[in-house]
Amino acid sequence: MIRDHALQVVVCAGGLGTRIAGWARYIPKEFYPVGGRPAIVHLLEEITQAGPADIVIVCHPYYQAFTQWASTALSQPGHDRYTRAAQLSPPSPATAQPAAFITQRGPYADLTSVLNGADHLAAPGDLYVAFADNLYPGDNPLTALRAAPPGQPAVLARAYHGAPRVWWRLDSPQMLWSGWPLSSTVPPPGGTTV
């Protein structure tokens, strides 16, 4: 069932990028260029393609000054200001949906980011979680998840060997979609593979 209300999306971006600390201390890894643009822009475009959304990006406190700039740069007024300053003609269309940046509170963990984002959104309904440093070209996973039955937990994952995505339902053996035989997948702890 496709929902007709805005998606509520928490983007987890609370890490410090310690494995890539040589450059991550200067710029969050989510803003590293991929295909000539910051990775986060690709994710925001993917969210926009899935429909209207309320988006909150949860970041590490270390990057607070950077995210203040980014919230302006990614906004429509920031886009318009850059277009005028760069004297682009005709003005290029905005590429990202507005998003709120919040600072992660509590111990670093993906779950902390999700809970902080859910508290910020504070609205009933389904909550979608995206990880800003995981980009997968191809089908839009949020569109696929949005088609899942309402109120049912669902996780969309992709194997590292490049196989198609598989949905894991944590509460039911009901199959939603699978791109390869179920026998070749491994369910998450406490879940079933579908």
Description:
This protein has 194 residues and is an alpha/beta fold. The protein folds into 2 domains: 141 residues, Spore Coat Polysaccharide Biosynthesis Protein SpsA, Chain A (Alpha-Beta Complex); 44 residues, no CATH class. It is 27% helix and 20% strand. The protein is built from 6 helices and 9 strands, in the order βαββαβααβαβαβββ. The chain has a 4-stranded parallel beta sheet with strand order 5-4-1-6, with helices on both faces. The chain has a 3-stranded antiparallel beta sheet with strand order 7-8-9. The protein has a two-stranded antiparallel ribbon with strand order 2-3. Strand 7 and strand 8 form a beta hairpin. It starts with 6 loop residues before the first strand and ends with a strand. The C terminus is likely disordered.
* Rg calculated over all Cα atoms: 18 Å
What class do helices, strands and sheet pairing give?
alpha/beta
Element pattern in H and E: EHEEHEHHEHEHEEE
Give the biggest sheet.
4 strands, parallel
Strand order of the largest sheet: 5-4-1-6
Shape: globular
At the third CATH level, what is the topology name of the largest domain? Spore Coat Polysaccharide Biosynthesis Protein SpsA, Chain A
Beginning-to-end CA distance, first to last residue: 18 Å
